[in-house]
């Protein structure tokens, strides 16, 4: 029996060969013939399984060690670079920059606050105090506010009469209501409500009684001199004539 093995890399080939050797599968010897000469060559891997296992163990240990070294290097190199940069910058500041600043001029003027920054700081302080005062006022208002029930609905009966007479003003809630204005003849408008009783001690005028059927209609008031037109005559309804009599139906038929 024969097995053919193909892999992409040489490391995979070696790994598979070592696995086959541990399982007891050995590569067969190949014989090359070139230019009429025969020569035998052994396989690329050793025939000793113990040696193959030791080689694989060493290779795995070396791979693990190299992975650890690579990870440690990636972790330490950026830290080392930053350490060197910071140390060099600190040495430059302490050795050269500080002496140059001391020799350049007045140190108090160098640490003085600029007018723009001072104005900005004052503006921020004013805003802070204004917000604090606004919060205090809002808290006082919310603590001192007392809720009251909703007032009853407003009676708007006077709106109907106000539409008929635009000159009327709405009645005041506290004072007595004034009577509606009279016309020139002393008669109220037909669609207006009767005036309320006066607030004085005089009795209210009596309501005129309705005239009987024998009397004629009342005279219209407001005529100059107290004279009125004669009452109109009531037309009499004519008596209807009796309906005509139906003619008798002639009797026809057989007698029993």
UniProtKB/TrEMBL annotation:
<feature type="domain" description="GED">
    <location>
        <begin position="55"/>
        <end position="146"/>
    </location>
</feature>
<keyword id="KW-0342">GTP-binding</keyword>
<keyword id="KW-0547">Nucleotide-binding</keyword>
<dbReference type="GO" id="GO:0031623">
    <property type="term" value="P:receptor internalization"/>
</dbReference>
<dbReference type="GO" id="GO:0003924">
    <property type="term" value="F:GTPase activity"/>
</dbReference>
<feature type="region of interest" description="Disordered">
    <location>
        <begin position="27"/>
        <end position="47"/>
    </location>
</feature>
<dbReference type="GO" id="GO:0005737">
    <property type="term" value="C:cytoplasm"/>
</dbReference>
<dbReference type="GO" id="GO:0008017">
    <property type="term" value="F:microtubule binding"/>
</dbReference>
<dbReference type="GO" id="GO:0016185">
    <property type="term" value="P:synaptic vesicle budding from presynaptic endocytic zone membrane"/>
</dbReference>
<dbReference type="InterPro" id="IPR003130">
    <property type="entry name" value="GED"/>
</dbReference>
<dbReference type="GO" id="GO:0098793">
    <property type="term" value="C:presynapse"/>
</dbReference>
<dbReference type="InterPro" id="IPR022812">
    <property type="entry name" value="Dynamin"/>
</dbReference>
<feature type="compositionally biased region" description="Pro residues">
    <location>
        <begin position="193"/>
        <end position="245"/>
    </location>
</feature>
<dbReference type="InterPro" id="IPR020850">
    <property type="entry name" value="GED_dom"/>
</dbReference>
<protein>
    <recommendedName>
        <fullName>dynamin GTPase</fullName>
        <ecNumber>3.6.5.5</ecNumber>
    </recommendedName>
</protein>
<dbReference type="GO" id="GO:0005525">
    <property type="term" value="F:GTP binding"/>
</dbReference>
<feature type="region of interest" description="Disordered">
    <location>
        <begin position="148"/>
        <end position="256"/>
    </location>
</feature>
<dbReference type="GO" id="GO:0005874">
    <property type="term" value="C:microtubule"/>
</dbReference>
<dbReference type="GO" id="GO:0005886">
    <property type="term" value="C:plasma membrane"/>
</dbReference>
<dbReference type="Pfam" id="PF02212">
    <property type="entry name" value="GED"/>
</dbReference>
<keyword id="KW-0378">Hydrolase</keyword>
């Amino acid at each position: 029996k024969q097995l053919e093995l193909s892999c992409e890399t040489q490391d995979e080939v070696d790994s598979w060969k070592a696995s086959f050797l541990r399982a007891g599968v050995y590569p067969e010897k190949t014989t090359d013939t070139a230019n009429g000469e025969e020569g035998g060559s052994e396989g690329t891997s050793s025939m000793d399984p113990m040696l193959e296992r030791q080689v694989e163990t060493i290779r795995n240990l070396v791979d693990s060690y190299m992975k650890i070294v690579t990870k440690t290097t990636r972790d330490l190199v950026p830290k080392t670079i930053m350490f060197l940069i910071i140390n060099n910058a600190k040495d430059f500041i302490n050795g050269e920059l500080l002496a140059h600043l001391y020799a350049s001029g007045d140190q108090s003027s160098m640490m003085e606050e600029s007018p723009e920054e001072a104005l900005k700081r004052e503006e921020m302080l004013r805003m802070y105090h204004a917000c604090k005062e606004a919060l205090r006022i809002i808290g006082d208002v919310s603590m001192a506010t007392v809720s009251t029930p909703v007032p009853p609905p407003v009676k708007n009966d006077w709106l109907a009469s106000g539409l008929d007479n635009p000159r009327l003003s709405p009645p005041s809630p506290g004072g007595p209501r004034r009577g509606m204005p009279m016309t020139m003849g002393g008669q109220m408008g037909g669609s207006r409500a009767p005036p309320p009783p006066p607030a004085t001690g005089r009795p209210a005028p009596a309501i005129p009684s309705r005239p009987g059927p024998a009397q004629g209609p009342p005279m219209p008031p407001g005529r100059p001199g107290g004279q009125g037109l004669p009452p109109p005559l009531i037309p009499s309804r004519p008596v209807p004539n009796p309906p005509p009599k139906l003619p008798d139906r002639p009797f026809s038929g057989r007698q029993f």
